Amino acid sequence: MKKWVSNDQKRNFLTWFLQQHQLKNKEVKIVFDQFIRNHHLLEKLHFTDHIVKNKKTIVISSYHSDEPGFLYYSNNQKYEHISKVLDDLNTNPSTSYYLLLNFNGKSINQRYLSLVESDTNDRFQEYKRFVQYEKDTNQMIDELLKQQNKDAIRQKIDEALDNRDKVLFNKLVSKLHELNEQKNDF
């Protein structure tokens, strides 16, 4: 479910962003101005934290970001000049546009995070996947360590046989049987 963000919140953030951040591509200010001045465009503007496939996504970066200054994705094509997005804004004002901003500190900027629309169900599913990955990884590491331990014991068993050390041999064989009977806690 998408969260609702008012046009005033969007306008205030865009204005604040222009005041606080230097844009890599100065011409991009025109795109911001289009959204700030036009209520109907703000209504269709959605802030996102990723490029939205098959949607019109505008990527804008500040000077201190490692990302390109401007990119526009539309109809599975990538554009690097603002003329295409300005044309689309004028010819398709009822279309939804997704804005991805790259700037220093965005991951902790509450003003920005409060605007980002993300599907909480997607986030939960992603979390569940990572928990499962962690569990699988831990199980694999445990198995590898157990196998390594068994190999080391087998090596010591061979050495005990070579040295004809029956006591050590029996102790190591017993230890190997214990390891073989252990079950993982996963």
UniProtKB/TrEMBL annotation:
Lineage: Bacteria, Bacillati, Bacillota, Bacilli, Bacillales
Location of the IDEAL domain: 140-176
The protein's name in its UniProt record: IDEAL domain-containing protein
InterPro entries per UniProt: IDEAL_dom, UPF0302, UPF0302_N, UPF0302_N_sf, Virus_scaffolding_prot_C
Entries under Gene3D superfamilies matching the protein: Uncharacterised family UPF0302, N-terminal domain, Virus Scaffolding Protein, Chain A
